[in-house]
Amino acid sequence: MRLVDRFVRFFDQREPATPLALVRILLGLTTVLTIGSVVIHGLVPVLWFDIADGGYRSHPQGPWLVQLLGGVRPDVVWRLVALSLIGGTAMIAGVGGRFAALVTALSFRAVTGINSHTGGSYDLLLSNALFLAVLAPTTRTLSVDCKLRTGSWTDDTPQHSWVRWLFVYQIVLTYWTTGLQKVSSHWTPGGDFSALYYILQQPSWHRADMRWIASAFPLTQLGTATSWFWEILAPLWLLAVYYAATREREGRARRWFNRLYVREIFAILGVVFHVAIHVFMNVGPFSLVSLAFYPALYSHEELSRVIRRFSPVRSA
């Protein structure tokens, strides 16, 4: 029971909702960019309409919400697209609280689930994140809701922080399971770590001709090995975030994790990997949605210290 009590006390802690608000803003931005890019390029009919209405394939079923609204018809698709954009914009602004997150999650999942040929795991990850946002008080601060409620854009009133740990768990689980699935000799020790090189030679993945990367093959090997170990060891990241949140407690492992900045090393590598992926590879919004989780790795106090440090206006 002592362990259960510690578990309950830890997840019953409260803090200002700044990390959750930043996650909300980034998730809304990712949703708008993802759906908006399809609209801007005129691909909504091609990707999500039935072949009878101008799409390139037949969609006899569609997700449950699409069926509930009348099936894969142009008017249904456009309504879901509009709801996704409106909901994402509302999340960026911080309007509508949990309801806005729910509308965004349902409409985004419905429209991107129409055509299984045009989506990817990044759509599922974004959908999961949006549903987590439904559980969180994400508009308590840094939002229009906060401005209307308090007269200020920020509110440091403590809120339940357990949802922040769900975001942390989700992104760590995503990285870890991704690494576990990379079992070919091109990825794992004992092989030649050539996976990244071959990926960058495939037109379906790269953004431009990458034949020049052959002259830097050892660098691609280093990138392959580093990313694989980073993903496989992702559970240590979860432990590092926990140790950082409980640094006042005793323990040799806790002291060393914090002293060696294990959490920060994992985060910096993640940012570097995702920026490189976004620049060189065409994998949809994977990098954007993944980075949207990162504010949850830090508490309100830690984020506030960073903001104060880089703020152009400092108190005397």
Give a short summary of the structure.
The chain is mostly helical and 316 residues long.
Characterization of the model:
- With 316 residues, the protein is mainly alpha-helical.
- The chain has two domains: 15-139, no CATH class; 163-304, no CATH class.
- 63% of the residues lie in helices and 1% in strands.
- It contains 16 helices and two strands.
- It has helices at 2-11, 18-40, 44-48, 64-69, 74-93, 97-112, 121-135, 144-150, 162-180, 195-199, 217-232, 234-245, 252-259, 262-280, 286-291, 300-310, and strands at residues 14-15, 159-160.
- It has a two-stranded antiparallel sheet.
- The longest helix has 23 residues, at 18-40.
- The protein is globular and about 65 Å long.
